[in-house]
C-alpha cells in the first residue's frame, strides 16, 4: 500500500469486534478509530444489523468483514454512492472445518453422547458399567459411501465438496451461477446436479452455502422436504432465513429430517427435536477473524486513499495506479455521455486528464480521472459542486 498523506484524517467506526491486526492497518497519521462517531468516513461491521441505522454525510464505505451482506441495506448504500465491500473467501476455511466436523460429529451422535456422559457425574465406580450399557443409544452412522448434497459452490461450498470426497463421500453439487474460478477449483468427481430437486432427491446429507436473497429465502420448506430421502441430515451454516422453521419442526417431528444442524438458533429452533444448534460459530476462528479484518481494512484504506475499488458488492471493481497527483472520482448512473459531461466540466477549470477508467455494473457506474495539474485546493468545492449538478451523478470526490 502507498503511504499517502490524507488532507484530512478519516474516521473509522466499528460496529462489531474487528480483529486488531486489521484495525492497525489504519495508521494513526491518517485515521482515527472512533466507535462513538455519528459521522464516520467508513464503517467496519460483521453481523450487526444496519438496516435501521441513519448514515451521516461523510460515510463513503462499509466493509463487511465476512461474506454475507444481508445485514446491510445495500440498495440504500448504492443510491447514496456508499461502497459496500465484503471479504470473499476470507472465512471459508473456518466454515468448511465446522461443517465437516459437525457432519461427522452428528452422524456419530457425539453431541448427545457427551451430554449424556456428563449426567453420570457422581456415579463413581458405576460409571464404566453405565457407559457400557448406555452407549447403545448413541450408535451412529459412518459418512463413508453416503451422498452429500452441496447447494452453492462458492468459496465455502467448493471447499466442503472437495474435502467430503476425501472422506469417501459421494458429492452432488448445485450452483446455477458458479463462478469460473470456483469451477476450476472444484474436483471433477463432484457430480453437477442439473436441478436442485435432483440434489434433494439423492442426498443423505444436505449442506447449504448460498447468500440469503429473495430467491433463496425459505428454500427448505414442506414442499422441498417432501422430495428428500427419509432421515436426511440438513446443515445450515449460511443464514436462518433459508429455512422455513415451522416446516422444519414438522419434518423433524415426522422423521423426514433426521437431524438439523444450524448456526442460527431461535426460540423455535431450540424447541425442535433432533436439532444441533451452534451460536453462529462458522467464522469464529482467530485465523478467519484476522483474514477478514485484514482484507476488509486494506480494501477500505485503498478506496479512501486512492479511489480504487476491490471486492465491492454494489459497484464495479476499478483500479488505476495511483500517482499521487489529483484524482477525481464519481459514482453515477450507467447512462450514455456521463464521461463526456464529466470531462467537459473538468476542462472548464483548465484541468488536463492524464489517465482514466470507467467501469459499470448493472444500473451504476464508476469513473476515476487522474488530473495532470496541481489543483488549487480553493477550487475543489466548486469543481465538486459543478459535477454534482450533472444529472445521474450520485457522489463525487477529489482525492
Ligand atoms: N456461519 C457463518 O459464520 C458464515 C460464514 C461465512 C459465510 N456464511 C454464509 O454463507 C454464505 C456463502 O458464503 P461463501 O463465502 O461461500 O459465498 P460465495 O459468494 O463464495 O458463494 C455463494 C455461492 O452461492 C451460489 N448461489 C447463489 N444463489 C444460489 C442458488 N439459488 N442456488 C444455488 N447456488 C446459489 C453463488 O453462485 C455462489 O457460488 C454467505 O452468503 C453467508 O450468508 C456464514
Ligand atoms: O462475523 C462472523 O462471525 C460471521 C460471519 C458470517 O456470517 C459471514 O457471512 O461471513
UniProtKB/TrEMBL annotation:
Pathway: Amino-acid biosynthesis; L-serine biosynthesis; L-serine from 3-phospho-D-glycerate: step 1/3. PROSITE patterns: ACT, D_2_HYDROXYACID_DH_1. Coiled coil: none annotated. Keywords: NAD, Oxidoreductase. Gene3D superfamilies: 3.30.70.260, NAD(P)-binding Rossmann-like Domain. Belongs to the D-isomer specific 2-hydroxyacid dehydrogenase family. This is D-3-phosphoglycerate dehydrogenase. It comes from Salipaludibacillus neizhouensis. The lineage of its organism: Bacteria, Bacillati, Bacillota, Bacilli, Bacillales.
Amino acid at each position: 500500500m502507498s503511504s499517502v498523506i490524507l488532507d484530512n484524517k478519516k474516521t473509522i467506526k466499528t460496529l462489531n469486534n474487528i480483529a486488531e491486526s486489521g484495525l492497525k492497518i489504519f495508521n494513526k497519521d491518517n485515521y482515527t478509530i472512533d466507535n462513538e462517531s455519528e459521522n464516520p468516513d467508513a464503517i467496519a461491521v460483521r453481523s450487526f444489523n444496519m438496516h435501521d441505522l441513519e448514515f451521516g454525510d461523510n460515510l463513503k464505505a462499509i466493509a463487511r468483514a465476512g461474506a454475507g451482506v444481508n445485514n446491510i441495506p445495500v440498495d440504500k448504500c448504492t443510491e447514496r454512492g456508499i461502497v459496500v465491500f465484503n471479504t470473499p473467501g476470507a472465512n471459508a476455511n473456518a466454515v468448511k472445518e465446522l461443517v465437516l466436523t459437525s457432519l461427522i460429529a452428528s452422524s456419530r451422535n457425539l453431541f448427545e453422547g457427551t451430554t449424556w456422559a456428563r449426567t453420570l457425574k457422581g456415579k463413581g465406580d458405576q460409571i464404566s458399567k453405565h457407559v457400557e450399557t448406555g452407549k447403545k443409544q448413541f450408535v451412529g452412522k459412518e459418512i463413508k459411501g453416503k451422498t452429500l448434497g452441496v447447494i452453492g459452490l462458492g468459496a465455502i461450498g467448493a471447499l466442503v465438496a472437495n474435502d467430503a470426497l476425501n472422506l469417501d463421500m459421494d458429492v452432488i453439487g448445485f450452483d446455477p451461477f458458479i463462478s469460473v474460478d470456483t469451477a476450476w477449483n472444484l474436483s471433477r468427481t463432484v457430480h453437477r446436479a442439473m436441478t436442485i430437486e435432483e440434489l434433494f432427491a439423492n442426498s443423505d446429507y444436505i449442506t447449504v452455502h448460498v447468500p440469503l436473497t429473495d430467491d433463496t429465502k425459505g428454500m427448505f420448506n414442506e414442499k422441498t422436504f417432501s422430495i428428500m430421502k427419509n432421515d436426511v441430515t440438513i446443515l445450515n451454516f449460511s443464514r436462518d432465513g433459508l429455512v422455513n422453521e415451522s416446516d422444519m419442526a414438522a419434518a423433524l417431528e415426522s422423521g423426514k429430517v433426521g437431524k438439523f444442524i444450524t448456526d442460527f438458533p431461535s426460540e423455535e429452533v431450540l424447541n425442535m427435536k433432533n436439532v444441533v444448534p451452534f451460536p453462529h460459530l462458522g467464522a469464529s476462528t482467530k485465523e478467519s477473524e484476522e483474514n477478514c479484518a485484514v482484507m476488509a481494512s486494506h480494501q477500505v484504506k485503498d478506496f479512501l486513499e486512492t479511489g480504487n475499488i476491490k471486492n465491492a458488492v454494489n459497484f464495479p471493481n476499478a483500479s488505476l495506479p495511483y500517482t499521487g497527483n489529483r484524482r477525481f472520482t464519481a459514482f453515477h448512473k450507467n447512462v450514455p455521455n456521463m464521461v463526456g459531461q464529466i470531462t467537459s466540466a473538468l476542462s472548464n477549470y483548465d484541468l488536463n486528464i492524464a489517465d482514466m477508467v470507467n467501469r459499470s455494473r448493472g444500473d451504476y457506474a464508476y469513473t476515476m480521472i487522474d488530473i495532470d495539474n496541481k489543483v488549487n485546493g480553493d477550487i475543489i468545492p466548486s469543481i465538486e459542486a459543478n459535477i454534482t449538478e450533472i444529472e445521474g451523478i450520485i457522489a463525487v470526490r477529489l482525492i
